[in-house]
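Researcher: We plan to redesign the surface later, but first we want a full-length starting point. Tokens attached.
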């Protein structure tokens, strides 16, 4: 078996696959569309994932993003584009288990082997009783990341508890 830096290629592939699966915890894939046909490996796609806010019952954010296919995408070493779009909605009765931080990261997922993550941050707009969700991707060597924002206005009869 071929080895890279003393580690078998199979071991590296297993580790990469496990990291990918662990990073997906908390996201539910809703669907995907193919955008570019790839002769070898999966096609390039746009995927839509649902992310339930872990501290706000009744709010779900839907994030669409590009997913790189081809041979690199098939083995989990492709770097996805740093672009995403978000839409958040009330999908049930709103309730809070405990007070929220004024700003908090509620989800992140690795979208490249080493440097890049897609993140969802929740901010509380107390004056308007609104939850603001920002999605962006970071990359250590780049600045000004692409981003998208969505809001969920909470009924005035339910005050958002803030720490």
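Model: Full-length starting sequence:
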């Amino acid at each position: 078996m071929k080895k890279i830096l003393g580690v078998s290629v199979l071991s590296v592939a297993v580790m990469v696959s496990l990291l990918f699966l662990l990073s997906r915890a908390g996201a539910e894939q809703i669907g995907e569309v193919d955008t570019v046909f790839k002769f070898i490996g999966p096609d390039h796609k746009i995927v839509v994932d649902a992310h339930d806010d872990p501290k706000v019952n009744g709010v779900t954010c839907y994030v669409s993003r590009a997913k790189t296919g081809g041979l690199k995408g098939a083995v989990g070493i492709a770097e996805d584009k740093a672009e995403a779009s978000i839409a958040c909605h009330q999908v049930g009765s709103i309730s809070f288990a405990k007070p929220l931080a004024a700003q908090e990261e509620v989800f992140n997922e690795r979208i490249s082997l080493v440097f890049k993550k897609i993140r969802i941050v929740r901010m509380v707009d107390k004056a308007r009783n609104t939850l603001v969700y920002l999605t962006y991707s970071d990359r250590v060597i780049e600045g000004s990341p692409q981003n998208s924002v969505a809001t969920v206005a909470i009924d005035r009869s339910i005050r958002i508890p803030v720490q």
